[in-house]
Amino acid sequence: MGDYRELWKNLNMDLEKHDQLCAVLPDMYGSVYLTQENRPEGMNYFNFVVSEVHGLRPAELNEHKQKGGKVLGTFCVFVPDEVIFAANAIPVGLCAGSQFWVEDGEKHLPRNMCPLIKAAVGAKVSGTCPYFQSVDMIVGETTCDGKKKAWEILDEYVPVHVMDLPQMKRTKDYNMWMEEIKLFIEKVEELTGNKVTVENLKKGIEIANSKRRALKRLYDFRKMTPSPISGKDALLISQIAFYDDPARFVQKVNELCDELEERAKSLKSEGKKRIMITGTPMALPNWKLHDIIENLPAEVVVEETCTGTRYFENEVSTEGETIEDLIKNLADRYLNINCACFTPNTGRIDDIKRYVEEYKVDGVIYSNLSFCHSYSIEYRNVEKALKEAGIPIMNIETDYSTEDAGQIKTRVEAFLEMI
Amino acid sequence: MGDYRELWKNLNMDLEKHDQLCAVLPDMYGSVYLTQENRPEGMNYFNFVVSEVHGLRPAELNEHKQKGGKVLGTFCVFVPDEVIFAANAIPVGLCAGSQFWVEDGEKHLPRNMCPLIKAAVGAKVSGTCPYFQSVDMIVGETTCDGKKKAWEILDEYVPVHVMDLPQMKRTKDYNMWMEEIKLFIEKVEELTGNKVTVENLKKGIEIANSKRRALKRLYDFRKMTPSPISGKDALLISQIAFYDDPARFVQKVNELCDELEERAKSLKSEGKKRIMITGTPMALPNWKLHDIIENLPAEVVVEETCTGTRYFENEVSTEGETIEDLIKNLADRYLNINCACFTPNTGRIDDIKRYVEEYKVDGVIYSNLSFCHSYSIEYRNVEKALKEAGIPIMNIETDYSTEDAGQIKTRVEAFLEMI
Fold it and tell me: What ipTM does the predicted assembly reach?
C-alpha cells in the first residue's frame, strides 16, 4: 500500500487503531482470494483496489474535495446516485462489513442488532474508516428500524439526510417517493452549490446505468456452466462498485468480461453444485459465506441481494424533457427493487424463481444477517414458494464473527449432498 | 365465568387449548391483583371484565355481527378508531400479551423477535383468542419491521389492511398520513357498507375523545402523593380500554374517579418511590414489571407508553365542516404521538421530562420488549437527556417469560435504593 498516513491524519483518523485494521486485511484477503487457482488476469485490478482500499480512493476523494467538490456517503441501493453524479458530487458506500468495527458499534447500539449497522456506527465513532471521514453528508433511508434509528447517532458526527422510503408499492407510494427524490435534489443542490438540470441528471443517469450494464454483463457470464469467474470474485467486484471511480470501474469490468468471453470457450464443467445466495447485503470485506461454499464442491453463481442483482438490475430511462420526467424515471426504477422492507414483497419470490432458471441454480441459500427482522420473517414465504416449486432452499443466519464457520460448513455440506 | 363454549365453538376456536389458557389466568390475576390491600371499590368492574375477558365482550361483538355490524382488530395507537366508530363498526385491540401464545408464534416467526408480535401471531394461528376469531378485518401499520412483515402471515388467516405510517414528521408526512386516513375510510366504507360522513365522523371523534378524557382524569389522580390508585390497577384499566364497550368503559372509569376523589382526601404518603415507566406497550395480561415494582416500596405513577399516555394524550378537534377538515384534525392528533418509529423522535424526551414534573417522578424505568430495535436504540438518547437533567433512569429489556423476574427485582431494588 502507498503511504497515506498524512492523508489519514488530515482526516482525523485514529492512526493507531487503523493500523490494527490494516494489519488484518492482507492476510484475510490472501487466504480467501489469492489461494484461488486459475483466476482471470483481470482480477489483478481488483486485487490492487483492495490492497489500496483505504488509500487510493480516499486520496481521489480528497483531491475532489480540494477542488470544492462534495462527497456523499450512502448505505443502501435505494439512494439515487444519479442525483449525486448530476451535482458533480461523489457517492461512496460506507464501511460496514467487518467484525473489527462491531465492538465500537456496541458502545452506542444494543448488542442484539444486525452486525452491518453496528459495524457502520463503530467505523464512524472509532475514526478508522477514511470514507466516513471524507463524507460531507450521509444519505440515510428508512429501510429498517435499525438503520432508521442509527442515523440519529451518526448525525451527531456528520450531517445525515434521511429519505423516507414508502413501505408499500401503491400509486401513492410512487408519488411519495418522487417527492422524496425532489427533496433529495434540493438538499444535494444546497450542499454542492450546483443546480441539478435535465442535462446533468441525464448524464448522472448514464453514469449509473453504465455501472449497471457492466455488472449485468459480468453476471451474464455466471449463467454459463461452469462460470468463468468464481462467486467470490464476482461478489468482490459488486462490493467495489460502491466505492470505485465509475468510469474506471466500468472499463476494468469490461476488460475482465472480454477476458471471460475467451476463457469461457475452454473451460470444462467439474460438476460443481450451482448455488444462489439470497438475502441481506454483504458489505466489504464480508466474504464469509462465499468462502465457505466455494471451498466445497460448489460455486455461487448469483446473489439476489443488495450487493448483487438488486444493485444493477433495471436501468433508469433517460427519456423525457423535464426534471419531473426524469424523477419519475428514477422512482420507477428504484421502487422496482424487491427489498424485504416492502409489504408485501412477492416480487422478490418471482425474481428468485427467475434467477433459478436463468442461472441454472441447483440450490438456494438464504443468507440473513443476525437480527434482521425483515429478511428473517420473509424467509417463511420464500421457503414456502420455493418448496412448492421444487427448488431446494436452506436458511443461514449469521454475523461477522468466524465462530460459526465450522457449523455453517457442515450444514452447507449436508445441503450440497441433498441437492 | 359464564358459559361461552357454544360461542367459542362457533368462532372456530380450539376449545381444548383455550381451556388451558383459561385455567391459568384466574390464578395469575389473583396473585397480581386481588392481593392488593385497600383497593378502590370501583375496581370491581374491572375485576369482572377480566374474569369474563374471553366471554362477555366477544358475546357483544357476536351480537353486533348478528345485526350485520363489523368488527375490526387493531394493534397500534396510530389506527384511528374514530373512523371505525363512524361506520358503526367496533374496534378491538387484539390478543398479544401472554407467554401462552409465544410458542405457537415461533412456528411462523423467528425466535429473536419481540414477544408481542410472536404472541399475536400465535394467538391467531392457535385459535385461542376470541377477538382474533371475531374480526372481519385487521388494521395493520408500518410502525416496526416485525409487525410490518407479520401482517403478511396474518393476512393468510384474516384480511389485513395496512396503513403506511410515515417515519418522519415533515409537512409532506402529514399530507401523506391524511391520504392514508382517506384510504382507510374508503376501506372501512367498503367493508361496512356505511358511508363515513361529517356527522358520524364527528360522533366517532367524540366517542374516542370521551375515552381519552376518562383516562386523562384517571391519570391526573396519579399525580397526587400518594396516588389513590395503584400503578397496576391503572395499567389494567388502560389495557381494558382497547377492548371494552366505549360508553360503559367511560362510565365505569368516571365512577371510579369519583371514588378516587373522595379517597384521596384521607390517604397518607408511605414514602414510596414514584416511578415512571417509559417504553414499549404492555398488552393484557402483561403485568410483569408493574407487579415487580409495586411489590417493592415503590409505585408506578405514569406510563409513557402506548398502553399509557400515548393512547389518550391530546384530543381530536371536531372543528370543521368537511370530511377533509376532520381528516386533517385526525392527522394532527395522531402524528403528535411520539413513537420511537419516527426519526428523530425528540418529542418523546420532552414528554418524559414533562411527566417527571407533572407526576413528581423519582426515577424512570425504561422498559423494552426484547428485540424491539426502535425503542432499544432510542434508549441511548433518552438516557443521555435524562442524565443531563439529573433524572435517574434504568433500562430493563425483558419478554413475557417469568425466568428473569428475580433478576429484575434485584436490579429495581438497587435502583430504588440509589434514587
Answer: 0.96
